[in-house]
Design a protein that fits this description.
By secondary structure, the chain is α/β, with parallel strands linked by helices. It has helices at about 5-15, 45-55, 85-100, 115-125, 185-205, 215-220, 235-250, 285-300, 315-320, and strands at about 20-25, 40-45, 60, 75-80, 100-110, 135, 140-145, 165-170, 170-175, 205-210, 230-235, 255-260, 270-275, 300-310, 325-335, 335-340. The structure holds S-adenosylmethionine. S-adenosylmethionine binds near residues 189 and 234.
Length: about 350
């Protein structure tokens, strides 16, 4: 299901056919009816969105909003519905200014509560032609024309640079804006690791899948275990980039694979670790938990075990019924619970 701002943007994209254009697409839900336009390029930081855009026949780049494939002043239009996180939005606006031709347009929109009006004001000042945001229902929209010369870029908090956030068990963890909770170690994941580590060790597992790996905390904490294979997977390009960076920096053998709930990974594993995404107020969160459970089951060997951590009010044990034969709560602490799942 699509939101009203994304819907508005799609209408602008459909009316645009024939111009050299780029659609910057993040996690926001889209309608199933994507435009078919050979002149439209898509850049997205989400694996599932890239798969859908490619399926619709669009020329699609999956990356952490790396705009280097586009030369300066090379496009007529850039379309963007603002992302949730400020550094991502500022980074995309800055790059949009760079790749637009003078006279080209940045078509920008977003909801009031997301700060869209402020983003539009800042983008318009940067592009050098002050213009006002237009309010349509609950969202703001603008078609911002790029002047010959750009003004001061927006502060993107050094979007592309990985930073060291903490060290644990001699592993240095780097992260960056664009990842869920990027500045910290997730409390749920810390509890999952504390509870699962001794069990994982006793299980003698030879292979491990980290489902929704983020910057790789869970899988990389296993560096002292004699695993023959570690696979880390996520839907978010920034997460994949940081997981790969952390594995390489710390010299830990790992395969990092982009996938939607591990959908293109066909192997099975002796162990799965997972801290599934949870967005309060998002109607899709329940479905996502179910999809992560289903994926864990299908990626587990018959004698394997999966360990999940979730907010304690998520009925994971009930949801696991019919998917796993056994679901045992191993810990229930500080608002989180760790559940062991066995086929
Ligand atoms: C709560 S975070 C956990 C991150 C990491 N495992 C940790 O412990 O720090 C959930 C992760 O699931 C990822 N995710 C969300 N939707 C996904 C999907 N459809 N497929 C794969 N991963 C997804 C997010 O990008 C995020 O990295």
């Amino acid at each position: 299901m699509s939101d009203s701002a994304s819907q508005w943007l799609l209408e602008q994209i459909r009316a645009n056919s024939g111009l050299a254009s780029l659609w910057c697409l993040d996690e926001h839900a889209q309608s199933d009816d994507l435009p078919i336009d050979p002149t439209l390029n898509v850049i997205t930081n989400r694996w599932d969105q890239a798969a859908r855009a490619r399926h619709a026949g669009l020329n699609t780049q999956f990356s952490d909003f790396d705009f280097s494939p586009w030369a300066d002043a090379s496009l007529d239009r850039v379309f963007y519905r603002v992302s949730k996180e400020k550094p991502v939005v500022h980074h995309v606006i800055n790059e949009a200014g760079r790749i637009l031709k003078p006279g080209g347009e940045l078509v920008l929109c977003g909801h009031k509560a997301e700060g869209a009006k402020t983003y539009i004001e800042k983008a318009s000042a940067y592009l050098g032609q002050p213009q006002k945001a237009k309010k349509i229902s609950q969202h703001y929209t603008a078609r911002l024309r790029r002047a010959e010369r750009l003004s001061q870029p927006l502060d993107d908090s050094d979007y592309t640079t990985p930073r060291r956030i903490f060290t644990e068990n001699d592993i240095a963890f780097f992260s960056k804006p664009g990842l869920f909770g990027w500045q910290k170690r997730d409390k749920g994941s810390a509890l999952l690791w504390e509870v699962a580590a001794p069990r994982l060790q006793c299980s003698g597992a030879a292979s491990l899948l980290d489902l929704g790996c983020g910057y790789g905390y869970l899988a990389l904490m296993t560096h002292w275990l004699p695993l023959q294979r570690r696979v880390l997977t996520d839907n978010n390009a920034a997460a994949l980039a940081m997981a790969a960076h952390n594995a390489e920096y710390n010299g830990i053998a790992a395969e990092v694979i982009g996938a939607d709930c591990g959908d293109n990974i066909t192997d099975t594993f002796d162990a799965v670790l997972c801290n599934p995404p949870f967005h309060q107020g998002f109607s899709v969160s329940g479905d996502l938990t179910d999809r992560f459970l289903g994926s864990a089951r299908s990626h587990l060997t018959s004698a394997g075990r999966a360990w999940f951590v979730v907010n304690r009010f998520i009925p994971l044990e009930q949801k696991a019924r019919g998917v796993f034969a056994h679901a045992d709560v191993l810990a229930d602490r500080d608002g989180f619970k760790v559940v062991e799942l066995r086929p």
